[in-house]
Amino acid sequence: MTTNALTIAQAASVSGASGTPAAAAPTNPSSILGQNDFLKLMIAQLQAQDPLQPANTNEYVSELAQFTQVEQTTNLANASELSGAVQLIGRTVSFIAPSGATSTGIVQSVQSTSSGTTVTVEGIPAIKLSSITEVN
User: Fold this and answer.
1) Is the dihedral of CA 16, 23, 8, 36 positive or negative?
2) What would you report as the CA-atom Rg of the chain, rounded to the nearest whole angstrom?
3) What are the E-state strand segments in 1-136?
4) Domain count, the chain
5) 93 falls within a domain
6) What are phi and psi of 59, to 5 degrees?
7) pTM of the full predicted structure?
8) Same-domain check for residues 63 and 93
9) pLDDT digit of tens for each residue in the chain (136 aa)?
């Protein structure tokens, strides 16, 4: 990156096209940067750069391409996880229940949310795939 790169804290203090400081720093409780966050950072970098020494646009294109590649890899991993969970429907699994006890039951359904893929086993919802210890 060039010497004109902004830190995340500096970029967070820029808001809108005017470049005026924001009233409060934005919060990100999950600490995950998405595509919109990346684009906001890129716009903040472009707004804050020295017009007499502009940044190399090839770097921005490269960063965007890398971000897109990571996003597509994440989407592929999520689709793979969902596909594997769907194959568990009707199968008997052993799992560690939210109470901490080991239980066994038949997978009835699969749920996919922004927090990940879970299954419902014998009426017990939101069993994480990582909690499944055995599949029969």
Assistant:
1) negative
2) 22
3) 14-15, 20-21, 92-96, 102-113, 116-121, 124-128, 132-135
4) 2
5) yes
6) -65, -40
7) 0.56
8) no
9) 444 444 444 444 444 444 444 445 556 566 666 777 877 887 888 888 877 877 777 877 888 888 888 889 988 988 999 999 999 999 999 999 888 899 999 999 999 988 889 999 999 999 999 999 999 9
b/e string for 29-47 if b means 16 or more Cβ within 10 A?
eeeeeeeebbebbbebbee
DSSP annotation string for 36-71: HHHHHHHHHHHHHS-TTSPPPHHHHHHHHHHHHHHH
Domain contains 124:
yes
Extract the tokens encoding 129. Answer: 């795939």
| Lookup: tokens for 127 | 């069993």
Q: Is residue 1 one of the residues assigned to a domain? A: no
Residue type, 59: E
